[in-house]
Amino acid sequence: MSTGPGPEPGPQAAPEPGPEPQPRHADPADTGPAAPGGLFAWLRGRCLGRGAAVDPARDTFGAMTGLYGAIQPADSVSLSTRTHGAVFNLEYSPDGSVLTVACEQTEVLLFDPISSKHIKTLSEAHEDCVNNIRFLDNRLFATCSDDTTIALWDLRKLNTKVCTLHGHTSWVKNIEYDTNTRLLVTSGFDGNVIIWDTNRCTEDGCPHKKFFHTRFLMRMRLTPDCSKMLISTSSGYLLILHDLDLNKSLEVGSYPILRARRTTSSSDITSSGSSGPRAVGSPCHQNSSGPPSEKTLSRPSQREGGSPRNSLEVLTPEVPGERDRGNCITSLQLHPKGWATLLRCSSNTDDQEEGAPVRPVSPRCSLRLTHCIEEANVGRGYIKELCFSPDGRMISSPHGFGIRLLGFDAHCSELVDCLPREASPLREIRSLYSHNDVVLTTKFSPTHCQIASGCLSGRVSLYQPKF
Questions:
Q1: What per-residue confidence (pLDDT) applies to 100?
Q2: What are the C-alpha distances in Å from 314 to residues 14, 78, 196, 355?
Q3: Which of 345, 363, 339 is nearest to 270 (CA)?
Q4: Model pLDDT, residue 109
Q5: Any idea what the Cα angle at residue 346 is, between residues 168 and 186, rounded to 5°?
Q6: What gap in Å lies between CA 465 and CA 453, rounded to an integer?
Q7: What's the half-sphere exposure (Cβ side, CA atoms, 13 Å) at 383?
Q8: What does the alpha-carbon distance between residue 320 and residue 329 come to, in Å, rounded to a whole number?
Q9: CA distances (Å), 184 to each of 101, 106, 222, 308, in order?
């Protein structure tokens, strides 16, 4: 599949004698991938990352996307001889050399994803379920657990933890890492987002402070450039902190609310998900704020020449067919280039990890829905984690006893190249089934054409092309 400009013409035979063609002067308005729109459309396309001139890896990713058409179950890995319970999270190291597995029964397992060989089992990584794993670099990674702690590990010395972090009062569900400030960011069912200064870690822990609090917190993510924080709740709200400053010490309730922020740019794209992935959206230039927050939020003075740091926006994603019911946003992922949000929503009438009131019906939708698909909520009570491919062209979604590969169109085009005027269904590219239980999590390798999935009975499957 070709996704970039066409190939250069090859050598041609000498032309027949005839009148010499008149020279044609190049016009910048009719060059580039967006030529019909003129120079400004072409420049705008460059800003959005279109064209090989802006993204040299685009052709490589196009080839990678083509390989996914030949992908098949390659290996089903028996994780260990002892019972480790369900697989809750999968995470590759940034260089793709290690696959880590977070297990229900206190264990973390490490594999070589290329050879499928078992490297190490951290049998008592925590005292309760291990929920999430995040690599800080190619060697250091963090794990979090229902035992309310976070642990730091070094691949070069796995016999002991680097340190254990205490600060949450309930299950810790998410870990993010700000590469600009080198601060670790965690969130839990206590409603707190806590930041940790890993540069000053000791065996007793590291300095930390509460950064944000909201009720019914489910998932928290940072955008790829770490300029925004997104938080989803089991009451159906999506919160965005703009112009993020983790070093700024703020009291809870001191965040300014952004009201009536609307833009008409086609780059403002949004989607949300139902029992399956439902939408994709841009957190970079979102619409107006939703309903009032639970507390009256004051407005600090604005910075000179711009909006205040850590401005809070409260959004209510649209979920087709669910307008009369509140929805729990159980899974939250971001496009690798920060173009969109990917949500998995389920009705609040379904079983959840934590109860939440039904959200009042919003008089309007504050997010632009671009793509959606509906999936049966198999395995209620467990959160299914979906993910984007490294180039953002495909989505891998847990689907029953397997996974589905989804695209924005049948050709796995870039989102900005196939943005519909109205919400369109995500296209199923391929379905892969190799489990004997409900799949809970899936992950693309960042460096190889490989996908991993983990299920409720503790099995991990690897998928890669076979010819």
A1: 96
A2: 66, 43, 25, 20
A3: 339
A4: 93
A5: 20
A6: 15
A7: 23
A8: 14
A9: 20, 22, 11, 23
What tokens does 299 get?
């407005």
If one counts every other C-beta atom within 10 angstroms of the C-beta of residue 45, the result is: 19
3-state secondary structure of 175: strand
Question: Nearest-CA neighbor of 270 among 363, 347, 360, 335?
Answer: 335
Q: Of 191, 221, 237, 238, which is closest to residue 354 (Cα–Cα)? A: 191
441: number of Cβ within 10 Å = 28
What H or E segment, with its residue span, contains residue 43? Answer: helix 38-47
Give the neighbor-by-neighbor strand order of the sheet with 163-166: 130-135, 140-145, 149-154, 163-166
Instruction: Kindly give, in sequence order, each residue whose CB lies less than 8 Å from that of residue 319, ignoring residues fewer than 6 positions away.
Output: 272, 273, 274, 278, 327, 345
Q: How far apart are CA 427 and CA 372, in angstroms?
A: 9
List the one residue out of 107, 133, 125, 3 whose CA is nearest residue 55.
Answer: 3
* Among candidate residues 335, 327, 385, the one with its CA nearest the CA of residue 358: 327
Q: Rounding to the nearest 10 degrees, give the CA dihedral for residues 357, 363, 366, 369.
A: 90
> β-pairing, 87-92 with 99-103?
antiparallel
- The C-alpha atoms of residue 327 and residue 126 are separated, in whole angstroms, by 31
* Residue carrying structure tokens 């076979």: 466
Mean of per-residue pLDDT scores for the chain: 75
CA distance 414 to 394: 9
* Residues whose CB is less than 8 angstroms from the CB of residue 26 and which lie 6 or more positions away in sequence, other chains included: none
What pLDDT digit, counting tens, does each position of 314-371 carry? 888 877 665 545 578 989 999 999 989 999 988 755 444 444 444 444 434 457 889 9
Token pair 């029964």 is at which residue?
105
**C-alpha distances in angstroms, 202 versus 3, 126, 163?**
49, 19, 7
pLDDT for res 4: 40
Pull the structure tokens for residue 419.
Answer: 């943005």
SS3 397: strand
Q: What DSSP assignment string belongs to 214-261?
A: -TTEEEEEE-TTSS-EEEEETTS-EEEEES--TTS---TT-PPBP-S-
Which has the closest alpha carbon to 314: 372, 246, 255, 252?
255
Distance CA 143, CA 138 (A): 15
Token code pair at residue 164 = 């254990």
Task: Compute the distance between CA of residue 49 and CA of residue 60 in angstroms, rounded to an integer.
Answer: 15
